[in-house]
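Entry 14. Two folds queued back to back today. First construct below, sequence then structure tokens.
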Amino acid sequence: MPEQPQTPMRKSAMVGVVGRTNAGKSTVVNQMVGEKVSIVSPVEQTTRNTIRGIVEDPRGQLVLLDTPGLHKAVGPLGKLLNGMARATSAGVDILLVVFDAAHEPQLEDEGWMRRVVKEHPEKVVFALNKCDRSPFYETMFRDLWKEVTTGTTGSLPVDAGTTSTTCSLPVDAGTTSTTGSLPVEPRWVTCCGIRKGGCDALLDALFDLSTPGPALFPEDVVTDYPRKLAIADVVREKLIQRLRDEVPHEVGVAVKDLHEDRRRGWDVAVTIYVNRASQKGIVIGPRGSLLKAVRLSAEPELSDMFGVKVRLELWVKVEPNWMKNNRLLAEMGYLGATR
């Protein structure tokens, strides 16, 4: 009796997704997962938690850890978010560094390259995102990597959107030496997070670097992100889309109560925190118009996300220096997720 061909063993890997803010990490993660697990916005610091997106594929399973983007840290929350991003780069099977290659390399991009040189992760993928744009600076990023690995690179500019000419690097600023063995040469992949199929080559590279092993999560799970934090994130995303200037960075969202009814669905009480009384009126809007628009935009998305009718009750509260309040930070998931 002829031997039956053996089915290849499925692979699995934990992937840390890092990079500077607005590189498109969450968009890339959503594209690879096949649905929205991370909120997306052109505003910096949109992602404030480490979110696990799970890719289920005939080849196996990838667990993607989407992190806050590295940025110029301002205040305790900014430093906390940067710390979360750095911590996620340790202890993963594959490090995926997403670069916004529609813009010239910035200091934070150089910083992530230096971290790779310093920490020598075994498997690294450099994703040059936004390949649909022109110009596309692939050559500049490749040249920067060569300079970093030979210790010849100098200071790069900070993104024009910042007001400072210096920025906190993800490694010690003095780390320019590359004495000793060089890191493994990363896989370079161009991708487009906003196009269907735009991350297929990236998925191929990640599965190629993965090793045979059991799935880490059930096949029907796309994220294990706590639902209260997911609800708060969607509300904050809708706020960010409607707010301007400094207000989005000073808004915190926490789910205070989630009441489940099998027939009626979920009733969710949400508190939106602002630092100053002047911001409260901005968030509420004339005659409550902005808050109403946020609710009407968030409810259908949440209902679709969870498969039940979701009704939101939104409140705005002035809480000076809420970013320094450990109780509120923990409630929002920044000091440990809660379900």
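Second construct, same run, same settings:
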Amino acid sequence: MRITGKVWKYGDNVDTDAIIPARYLNMSGAAELACHCMEDIDPGFVTAVQPGDVIVAGENFGCGSSREHAPVAIKAAGVACVVAKSYARIFYRNAINIGLPILECPDAADETEAGDVLTIDLAAGAITNGRTGRTYRTSPFPPFIMAVIEAGGLVPYTRKRMSARSAGAG
């Protein structure tokens, strides 16, 4: 799976309230959540983000409450991948569960600027910055996690597997 997108750059400790403010947690639809993604720290984000764009951030991205709304809002806003120095553990798991690829790569996070264009090869664990020409290496996802991401998340992955088993059992 290959992603190419413009970078939206954020700093350290971007918490889930910054990603999707708590006042919107009564909304359950992904499209509704996307309309408010990052609005308190970057009011122009929701009107300018394009499908396939990439968020790059510092340490501890997604800290705070364990709500799944945060990665859902990011994915529904059109972000194809998040690259950060590190993630809050529950955010990392929630992102994988909903099919949002997230990579840890401190060097890429440090050396990438807002507006850069990154090309990300998830299978190879490679992130290439179009402005600098530099390629950064990170751990690729194991095949099972890649299958979950490609399916669009854990629920669609499980449905697909259950359907395949049912079809084979008949």
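Quick look at the second one. The helical segments are 16-19, 30-34, 45-48, 69-76, 89-97, 106-111, 143-151, 154-169. The first strand starts at residue 2 and ends at 9.
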